[in-house]
Amino acid sequence: MVPASVPSGIEIAKHRGARYRLGPELEICGYGCWDHYHESDTLLHSLQVLAALLESPVTQDIICDVGMPVMHRNVRYNCRVIFLNRRILLIRPKMALANEGNYRELRWFTPWSRSRQTEEYFLPRMIQELTKQETVPFGDAVLATLDTCIGSEVCEELWTPRSPHVDMGLDGVEIFTNASGSHHVLRKAHARVDLVTMATTKNGGIYLLANQKGCDGDRLYYDGCAMIAMNGSIFAQGSQFSLDDVEVLTATLDLEDVRSYRAEISSRNLEASKVSPYPRVKVDFALSCHEDLLEPLSEPVEWKYHSPAEEISLGPACWLWDFLRRSQQAGFLLPLSGGVDSAATACLVYSMCRQVCEAVKDGNREVLADVRTIVDQPSYTPQDPRELCGRILTTCYMAGENSSRETCDRAKELAQQVGSHHLGLNIDPAVKAVVGIFSLVTGKSPLFAAHGGSSRENLALQNVQARVRMVVAYLFAQLSLWSRGARGGLLVLGSANVDESLLGYLTKYDCSSADINPIGGISKTDLKDFVQFCMESFQLPALQSILVAPPTAELEPLASGQVSQTDEEDMGMTYAELSVYGRLRKLAKTGPYGMFCKLLVMWRDVCTPRQVADKVKRFFSKYSINRHKMTTLTPAYHAESYSPDDNRFDLRPFLYNTRWPWQFRCIDKQVLQLERRQQDLEGVD
């Protein structure tokens, strides 16, 4: 339950002169309850919070629109409960449920399917005692105040082909409200803004959108972007990312501007004359008053978008802060390899520290209290991000016999510049001990391929190093603060990117296994852009050498002291190609043959049909061989729409016929036909 933020938001809204307050979807219990929605406790506690709100003097003389689950006739609904002065005006159930990607609303709720119809809802006794009402309207209706008409949409309903605001607007509704639980995806903000502005461009009206903001307990970060629009223009923009628990957005608009805008759209007015009416709940209350005549009106604003690199610097950093403060740990431990991925993760923690310092400087008391709890110093006030980073981030370079001096130096230099507490250690004794146990039991000593060993031996020896690093990371996460005389433990951060996870280019239970992974939903291409952004914006010159160095796992023997192994060579494909495969597999929903057909056109200038076929078959073979690794992926920040997260977003088998016999035969057959056609054309020439 998150009731504390609700009354504080109402209080701020009233202080600013607001007469209607809209909160985000399911705000009383929190959107991310998931299967807790099945529990009677969740319904009971939501009603208890509603009772406290009804009883509070804060909620008097303002229409309050809150979100919570409601059971009506033994069916659970995702509802808006709208009340005024201790009386419930309307319970409006959600009519279109989100059930794709990360959303599973049909698992917990039933959509209200009776358009423009209401029923009597019998209030529980604890609510009846407060409101002195036995029943209230439940269903698809609108509010008719003394001066206007207000209609509700809930999140997904804005995105449907026939959104309720269309018919509501034709029926005279002038103010539309939308309570959302929409999570961050890179480059998604424009879609919300476009939908809202287009809704009010075609039909006129005022549109209010309230969205959750922050980590709600899992992989998603809800990214705010609250807004107020009128007649196709934005009049107020909320932040997309911040550490504030409560943000209130207000605007003063003239209802006559809506009426005059609609008056000259004849096509709209013709449609309006034919629309079926909505049930109206009469409300003896006005959003305006005579004194408003001298109130200055809000002016249109131009929406300010973040670049993808800025989004990465802010979203995952805010998610990390929410995770850290709510887990009650004392900081993070990050295995820092000297490569782009772990460097990007270090930059995210540094960005988090910058945001914490800025929030404290701006007077955010909640953030100050949280940071003092984390560092276990009641009088501490953070001012310098580097100094704060030194308190809450421990980085660790774990060298082995195959590590190069260059990666060690790059890791150390970056740690110095972000200010982390940096450790350097050698894992060779542990690796030799583990391999020694195998040799003692079997009488066999595996060798690297460079020393004459087989591919099986080579891979096993690489995996031992990787897994030892995971064990060492957790040991230091638990005890490094103890060794320094400080209290608490550290959360282990992973740093495998979305492309490597997609292909399975990681060792099961290596350093990709961690408590959380802030970059697990971000592509290598975007991560490089982000690191470039950090180098320039955060003045971290150590990132320059990291950016230009070829990505390498450093698990095979060096050649003349130099790295002989690169990631792209190991994978047999480039990171850029992986991003293309990922988007085609998930977003375009292609299997091997469908992907081959699309890439024939996309890559026609650089690849022959046979080369395309070989690339597609190589990807799907490796993807299917390694799909089992997705079942153990570290919980990662969701930022990319082609994430292979097996937990909820990308539900596919993890045991495949990795030869794909039917699909690959179809590809081969098509290649032969294309090659014969090309030969025939050349023969004609």
Give the count of helical stretches. Answer: 23
Mean pLDDT: 94
Taking strands numbered 1, 2, ... along the chain, how are they ordered across the largest sheet?
14-13-10-9-8-7-15
Sheet with the most strands, sense and barrel status: 7 strands, mixed
Estimate the strand proportion.
Answer: 5-15%
* Through-space gap between termini: 75 Å
Radius of gyration: 29 Å
The general outline is globular
Number of strands: 19
The share of residues in helices is 40-55%
SSE class: alpha/beta
Q: What low-confidence regions span 5 or more consecutive residues with pLDDT below 50?
A: none
EC number: 6.3.5.1
GO molecular function, one term: glutaminase activity
InterPro entries: C-N_Hydrolase (IPR003010), C-N_Hydrolase_sf (IPR036526), Gln-dep_NAD_synthase (IPR014445), NAD/GMP_synthase (IPR022310), NAD_synthase (IPR003694), Rossmann-like_a/b/a_fold (IPR014729)
Pfam family, one: NAD_synthase
SSE layout and pairing:
Elements: H1 5-15, E1 20-22, H2 40-55, E2 63-72, E3 75-84, E4 87-93, H3 105-108, E5 118-122, H4 125-131, E6 135-139, E7 142-144, E8 149-154, H5 164-170, E9 175-180, H6 189-203, E10 206-211, E11 213-215, E12 221-223, E13 227-230, E14 233-237, H7 255-263, H8 266-272, E15 280-282, H9 308-327, E16 332-335, H10 340-361, H11 365-375, H12 385-392, E17 393-399, H13 405-418, E18 421-426, H14 428-442, H15 455-483, E19 491-492, H16 498-503, H17 524-537, H18 542-548, H19 567-571, H20 575-586, H21 592-602, H22 609-626, H23 661-684
Parallel strand pairs: 1-2, 7-15, 8-9, 9-10, 16-17, 16-19, 17-18
Antiparallel strand pairs: 2-3, 3-4, 5-6, 7-8, 10-13, 11-12, 13-14
Helix pairs in contact: 2-4, 9-10, 9-17, 10-12, 10-13, 10-17, 13-18, 14-15, 17-18, 21-22, 22-23
